[in-house]
Amino acid sequence: MEVNETIQTMRKTKIKRTIIDSDIHNYTALDEIKKYLPRVYRDQIDLWGWRLPGSLYLNGGIKVGQMADSTPPDGGFPGSNLDFLSSQYLDPFHVEYGILTGSDYSCQASPDVDYAAAISSAINEYTLEQWLAKDNRLKGSVFIPKQEPSLAVKEINRVGSHQDMVQVIVASGADKPYGNRYYHPIYEACVEHNLPFTIHVLMEGVGMNPPTTGAGYVSYYPEYRATRPQVMAAHLASLIYEGVFEKFPTLKVVLQEAGVFWLAPYLWKMDEDWKSLRFQTPWVKKRPSEYFRSNIKVSSQPLEPTPNPEMFRQMMKAVYAEETLLYCSDYPHWDFDSPLLAFPKLEDALWERVFYQNAAELYGLPARKAATGGID
């Protein structure tokens, strides 16, 4: 059966289980979080504007890359209305838990680190008060000024122990690859609070961050999407070869929205290079693919289609999907991956791992409240 035929079959299939979505973009833009900022910054914004870098590329969809039908009835920005999010997505798709990942990462590209820290705190307070306190299905991500680790650690210590904060989140655009020891204090704080460190694609080539690729800046948004794996691959190699997982063996890292199947040949290459060159990094005691399996999780969105179902099955095995893959919808973005349509039909045990158990184990979430329910 071809992939398109499989998708049509899935539309008629009832999956009587709830799911965990590890990437829901609630609206955390500047107009929402301003009141949570200290007065000194509110006054500066009123006088001089936000002083934050913006996107370089034209994204698809309406309202900067959102689904056409995701605007709530009050006319607000997609992802800004909890009631509409519930009625359009959480309820009909039986999302037992949804991990909120925000919508504005621009402060993580600002050279003004105190300002970045204030905005991060404001986003976190807004998320706690306006989202997590109102729906116990939702869990939050701790925004940090990752360009200044001491301030990032301070913010993790401030809100990281909150029961509804389940990860630390950063943009993939960064001044240094994330294995660099510059970031190690952040990982120490993550381990202390039992929080995964999630790297979400965004802010490459913006503000104080280096270009979008090692070859320089690209011209168009499709190019930018095509080069996202390059940046994420650099972070992954850095984390492994700098020995982060030897120093912090319990740290979990999530690679979010950079694709999935490119990882298979990349892991093969890293394993081969490690065999030949490991004398240069003797602290890397295991094959890179072993660290990947024990310490890395990967977002399913965007999941690359394959020419046929057999290749899809082989690629899922090659990236150890049963252990590493998390279902992510990317709601409400234009490339939203519906739980019904994102995958060809999976074997039951694999479906269970991808759509619930991997995320439940990663985020410390309980078993389902009910054995039935699920997607119609």
List keywords for this structure.
376 residues; TIM Barrel; eight-stranded parallel beta sheet; 10% strand; disordered N terminus
Please describe what this structure looks like.
It is a single chain. The protein is an alpha/beta fold and 376 residues long. The protein has a single domain (3-362), classed as TIM Barrel (Alpha-Beta Barrel), CATH 3.20.20. The chain has helices spanning 3-11, 30-33, 39-48, 82-90, 113-132, 149-159, 184-192, 221-241, 244-247, 263-277, 288-295, 309-318, 321-324, 348-363; strands at 19-24, 95-100, 138-143, 165-171, 197-200, 253-256, 296-299, 325-326. The radius of gyration is 20 Å and the shape is globular. The model is unreliable at 1-14 (pLDDT under 50).
Order of the strands making up the biggest sheet: 1-2-3-4-5-6-7-8
| Element order: H for helix, E for strand | HEHHHEHEHEHEHHEHHEHHEH
The assigned structural class equals alpha/beta
CATH superfamily: Metal-dependent hydrolases
Number of domains: 1
* Strand-residue proportion: 5-15%
Which overall shape is indicated by the principal axes computed on the Cα atoms?
A: globular
CATH architectural grouping: Alpha-Beta Barrel
Termini, distance in Å? 22 Å
Low-confidence stretches: 1-14
How are the secondary structure elements laid out?
Elements: H1 3-11, E1 19-24, H2 30-33, H3 39-48, H4 82-90, E2 95-100, H5 113-132, E3 138-143, H6 149-159, E4 165-171, H7 184-192, E5 197-200, H8 221-241, H9 244-247, E6 253-256, H10 263-277, H11 288-295, E7 296-299, H12 309-318, H13 321-324, E8 325-326, H14 348-363
Parallel strand pairs: 1-2, 2-3, 3-4, 4-5, 5-6, 6-7, 7-8
